[in-house]
Amino acid sequence: MSTSPSNEVEANRQPDHEINPQFIERWSPRSFSDQDVPEDVLLCLLEAARWAPSGNNNQPWRFIIARTPEHLTAFHSFIHPSNRVWCEKAPVLALAISHTLTPRGTENASHAFDTGTAWGYLALEANNQGLITHAMGGFDRDLARQTLNIPNDYAIHAVIAIGYRGPVDALPENLREREVPSSRNEVSTFTYFGKFE
């Protein structure tokens, strides 16, 4: 794990309060190398997601993984062209979905919240393992459901590209200037004490 921010991150991200560097080191590049992600490394990411907290310990998240040419081609069929232009080089794609029902068959009100937390754990461990991740919402959810045979009681959230970082100049020219860590709003813009203001 990194002990201090890289120069690239440090130039674009400055926390106002002292935190573990992993939180600012993680960002979402688009340039992927076609280098294979070993299965044992991929399983480390999923192991991290496994330990995310969830309401009543229901663990509603599911990740459908594509890493063979056949499975990757199936994923590419429902990803929007604006994302395919960069994500096709990623050696692993994952679809994050969540079970909307509890084990008792009642509505699980926290399924999306819990699955977002699991994705966050996965993304942080990817960074710890020297990988990059980029979650995207630009895909056809109905086609994904049909293509991957996803039952109706599962909500579909995001496609996640996973792999090793590639060179910036491998991206289309219009994406190269965006290939930098983004900043974030200050804590005061999203925090309220006592009541919403």
From TrEMBL:
Biased composition (Basic and acidic residues): 10-19
UniProt xrefs under CDD domains: TdsD-like
Region (Disordered): 1-20
Domain Nitroreductase: 25-74, 88-164
Key words, A-Z: Oxidoreductase
Lineage top rank: taxon: Bacteria
UniProt keyword annotation of Oxidoreductase present: yes
Record-level Gene Ontology MF annotations: oxidoreductase activity
UniProt keyword annotation of Oxidoreductase present: yes
SUPFAM superfamilies: FMN-dependent nitroreductase-like
Family: Belongs to the nitroreductase family.
Protein name as annotated: Nitroreductase family protein
Native source species: Paenibacillus roseopurpureus
